[in-house]
Amino acid sequence: MTAEHLLTGLRGEELAAAHLHALGWTILERNVSFRGGELDIVARDGNELVVVEVRTRAPGWMQSAEESVGPRKIRRLVRTGTKYMVSRRWDGPWRIDVVAVTLLADEDARIERFEDVTAGRDFS
Hints:
Number of domains: 1
Largest sheet: 5 strands, mixed
Number of helices: 2
Distance between the termini: 28 Å
Radius of gyration: 14 Å
Strand order of the largest sheet: 1-2-3-4-5
Shape: globular
Helix content: 25-40%
């Protein structure tokens, strides 16, 4: 990865975390690594833990941020999220959301949240 690509991703994660915080969520952890995967953000939304995958795109990308999260990535998030819940002894409800951050030329960003991307489907 290039340094610019890493900076874009970091900016997107910062914007996503600020957006979730503004929604009243509690950010518990960021960039949690397990063998086989990483979780960008783990947050609490009410009584539910949320694994948040952040995808950031700069102007000019052909594929939108949310379109870049396919079934393979969702399977990895399910596996890694399950490892996280077991490691933290969490037995309550949890879900996986995607936050798509599109950086715009005028320094603003468009942030969209896609809630519960597994929606009961089996990605194992």
